[in-house]
Write a structure and sequence with these properties.
Layout: H1 3-14, H2 19-22, H3 36-55, H4 59-86, H5 89-100, H6 121-126, E1 132-133, E2 145-146, H7 163-175, H8 177-180, H9 193-196, H10 202-211, E3 213-214, E4 224-225, H11 232-235, H12 238-250, H13 265-278
Antiparallel strand pairs: 1-2, 3-4
């Protein structure tokens, strides 16, 4: 999701006095899903090329193939239909992962720690395993790790998290710490986000960031969460901030600065995207 898309949503969300409830209906697209249509179209184009080549084969071979197809069409067609209708959830997840990562899902040595007993809402519902990564050449958040629901999730290699988790800590400190306190643990001005994320999912979180909310945390009449939908310093790093806070809520990212991952193609692509989003 681009900064421009989220900014367009901000105008509507800011006018809402029930931003927290409205977040349920936000049109924000799950991270990684924005490129799916484009990638599927590219896959279709690539699939058409061998089909065209086969069409140019000799007439006898074509007739033979046609005969074979007609002879075995009933059984193979039934099998294909059966596979499509009874495919396991794991195979469906794999297909979704391939689409969101450009067809290449390289988990490498990624192995996320077990979450604690009271994790974030998304981890409660989806678990915290990495299902896919955005492709390094993706137009939005390249290299971002995604769970089975295509929501941002941390990706650990040993004891070191991915670039987005580390960067989220930095951007949280620059934009959120003043009210929400160090390590997302709250203050007298704003709630503990490690607890808030136990009750709201990624979309609700993003909707609140974009449109703000009022008198939800403190109902006495003086609780205001500003709308950040038009601030690129926040919006260009929204997924990084969420990834870091999800790690904190899940108990897998400790207090203080997480370990910084080594330079890689993923981290370079992610950094370049952030700079481009900010207009550097």
């Amino acid at each position: 999701m681009t900064f421009k898309t989220l900014s367009a949503l901000a105008g509507t969300l800011i006018l809402s006095t029930a931003g927290f409830a409205y977040a349920q209906g936000t049109t924000l697209v799950p991270a990684g899903q924005a490129q799916e249509t484009q990638r599927l179209a590219q896959a279709d184009t690539a699939a058409e090329q061998p089909a065209a080549s086969e069409a140019g084969s000799s007439g006898s071979a074509g007739a033979s193939s046609s005969s074979d197809a007609a002879t075995s069409g009933t059984s193979s067609g039934a099998a294909s239909s059966s596979d499509a209708s009874s495919g396991s959830s794991s195979s469906g997840t794999a297909s979704s992962a391939d689409a969101s990562s450009g067809g290449a899902v390289d988990m490498g040595n990624v192995s996320n720690p077990e979450p604690d007993a009271h994790p974030s809402k998304d981890t409660q519902e989806e678990g915290n395993k990495v299902s896919s990564f955005n492709a390094n050449d993706a137009s939005e958040d390249p290299g971002l790790a995604l769970d089975t629901a295509e929501k941002p999730v941390y990706a650990f290699a040993g004891e070191t998290p991915d670039w987005y988790t580390w960067r989220g800590y930095k951007k949280y400190g620059a934009n959120c710490l003043q009210c929400h306190g160090p390590d997302g643990m709250g203050s007298s001005f704003a709630p503990d986000l490690t607890q808030s994320l136990q009750n709201i999912d990624y979309f609700e979180f993003a909707g609140i960031i974009v449109g703000g909310q009022q008198n939800k945390w403190n109902t006495s009449g003086n609780s205001i969460m500003p709308a950040w939908g038009e601030d690129p310093n926040v919006m260009c790093s929204l997924n990084a901030i969420y990834t870091y806070l999800r790690g904190r809520a899940d108990g897998v990212v400790g207090r203080g600065e997480p370990g910084r991952p080594e330079q890689s193609d993923k981290s370079k692509a992610a950094k370049d995207y952030e700079y481009s989003c900010l207009g550097f």
